[in-house]
Amino acid sequence: xxxxxxxxxxxxxxxxxxxxxxxxxxxxxxxxxxxxxxxxxxxxxxxxxxxxxxxxxxxxxxxxxxxxxxxxxxxxxxxxxxxxxxxxxxxxxxxxxxxxxxxxxxxxxxxxxxxxxxxxxxxxxxxxxxxxxxxxxxxxxxxxxxxxxxxxxxxxxxxxxxxxxxxxxxxxxxxxxxxxxxxxxxxxxxxxxxxxxxxxxxxxxxxxxxxxxxxxxxxxxxxxxx
Length: 226
Description:
Layout: H1 2-6, H2 15-29, E1 35-42, E2 46-52, H3 55-67, H4 71-78, E3 81-84, H5 92-102, E4 107-116, E5 119-127, H6 135-189, H7 193-207, H8 211-225
């Protein structure tokens, strides 16, 4: 289990790939597990299921999000372990357990994942049988969750860094084409850089197009004409 987590290469997959690998590995590792899901809870964005190994787990997760209550949300929010040994007999969370029992899941173990300062999550292990997770399984799940938290934190940081780099690259490309367009206008109209930028901005507003698109169109027309 630990070796497989350690072999995840962030440069060869994305965040979704890491999440799916962790979910699949948890399903194969923790005794009694039938399906697995991973809940992510990010500041101001609400909760979502970022990975799942089956439709039932996904549906039961989403039922909690609709009601704003459930074991997965409690585990993610408080960063604790929440156990539901017998879903049919559990009356918490607006009787969510009864819905889980009808869907064929007799028990649940949800483990909080303190991933980053603004990101928390829960590893949700669904078992088909009642009391599917004994003491041994719970210890294995908590150990797994600890290592998975590190892997997911690294994946989030890597993804955020990669996204920032892409945004910076796009911003540099946008700035370059805007500067080219300004130069064209300055040469044609014998105006200053500020006046050229004002002309670009007015065309952008009047045509309801992005400034970068207006600039790129002007540069493209000029190149074709030449």
